[in-house]
Amino acid sequence: QQGNLLPHKKVARLKVGMSKNDVAILMGTSLLSPTFNNDHWDYAYTWRRGHGTMEIRTVSLYFSNGVLKHIEHKP
Fold this sequence. Notes:
Helix content is 19%, strand content 37%. The chain has a four-stranded antiparallel β-sheet, with no helix packed on it. By secondary structure, the protein is of the alpha+beta class. The relative contact order is 0.26. Strand 3 and strand 4 form a beta hairpin.
Protein backbone atom coordinates (compact mmCIF):
# COMPACT_ATOMS: atom_id res chain seq x y z
CA GLN A 1 0.00 0.00 0.00
CA GLN A 2 1.19 3.49 -0.78
CA GLY A 3 -0.02 7.06 -0.44
CA ASN A 4 -2.54 8.74 1.84
CA LEU A 5 -5.16 6.47 3.38
CA LEU A 6 -8.53 7.61 2.04
CA PRO A 7 -11.19 6.07 4.28
CA HIS A 8 -14.71 6.78 3.06
CA LYS A 9 -15.64 8.29 6.45
CA LYS A 10 -12.90 10.93 6.14
CA VAL A 11 -13.71 11.79 2.53
CA ALA A 12 -17.42 12.05 3.41
CA ARG A 13 -16.59 14.68 6.04
CA LEU A 14 -15.05 17.01 3.44
CA LYS A 15 -17.36 19.94 2.79
CA VAL A 16 -17.18 22.84 0.39
CA GLY A 17 -16.42 25.96 2.45
CA MET A 18 -13.83 24.31 4.76
CA SER A 19 -10.57 26.16 5.27
CA LYS A 20 -7.25 24.72 4.07
CA ASN A 21 -6.26 24.28 7.70
CA ASP A 22 -9.42 22.29 8.50
CA VAL A 23 -8.86 20.08 5.44
CA ALA A 24 -5.23 19.48 6.43
CA ILE A 25 -6.31 18.47 9.94
CA LEU A 26 -8.93 16.06 8.57
CA MET A 27 -7.02 14.57 5.64
CA GLY A 28 -3.38 15.10 6.55
CA THR A 29 -0.98 16.71 4.14
CA SER A 30 -1.12 15.81 0.48
CA LEU A 31 1.79 13.68 -0.67
CA LEU A 32 1.38 15.01 -4.22
CA SER A 33 0.84 18.75 -3.69
CA PRO A 34 2.50 21.34 -1.46
CA THR A 35 0.07 21.89 1.41
CA PHE A 36 -0.21 25.65 1.71
CA ASN A 37 1.43 26.84 -1.52
CA ASN A 38 -1.27 26.18 -4.10
CA ASP A 39 -4.99 25.81 -4.62
CA HIS A 40 -5.08 22.21 -5.88
CA TRP A 41 -4.31 19.30 -3.57
CA ASP A 42 -4.20 15.71 -4.78
CA TYR A 43 -4.42 12.64 -2.57
CA ALA A 44 -3.83 9.14 -3.94
CA TYR A 45 -3.86 5.68 -2.42
CA THR A 46 -2.93 2.38 -4.03
CA TRP A 47 -3.38 -1.10 -2.61
CA ARG A 48 -2.64 -4.56 -3.95
CA ARG A 49 -2.99 -7.77 -2.03
CA GLY A 50 -0.67 -10.47 -3.37
CA HIS A 51 -1.09 -10.81 -7.12
CA GLY A 52 -4.61 -9.34 -7.12
CA THR A 53 -5.72 -6.29 -9.02
CA MET A 54 -4.47 -2.92 -7.87
CA GLU A 55 -7.01 -0.68 -6.20
CA ILE A 56 -6.49 3.04 -6.80
CA ARG A 57 -8.41 5.81 -5.02
CA THR A 58 -7.94 9.50 -5.63
CA VAL A 59 -9.31 12.74 -4.22
CA SER A 60 -8.60 16.14 -5.77
CA LEU A 61 -9.42 19.25 -3.78
CA TYR A 62 -9.65 22.75 -5.26
CA PHE A 63 -9.36 25.91 -3.17
CA SER A 64 -9.94 29.59 -3.77
CA ASN A 65 -8.80 32.21 -1.25
CA GLY A 66 -8.00 29.48 1.28
CA VAL A 67 -11.48 27.92 1.11
CA LEU A 68 -12.42 24.51 -0.35
CA LYS A 69 -14.48 25.12 -3.50
CA HIS A 70 -14.66 21.74 -5.30
CA ILE A 71 -14.09 18.05 -4.49
CA GLU A 72 -13.40 15.29 -7.04
CA HIS A 73 -13.43 11.76 -5.62
CA LYS A 74 -12.68 8.60 -7.57
CA PRO A 75 -13.19 5.60 -5.27
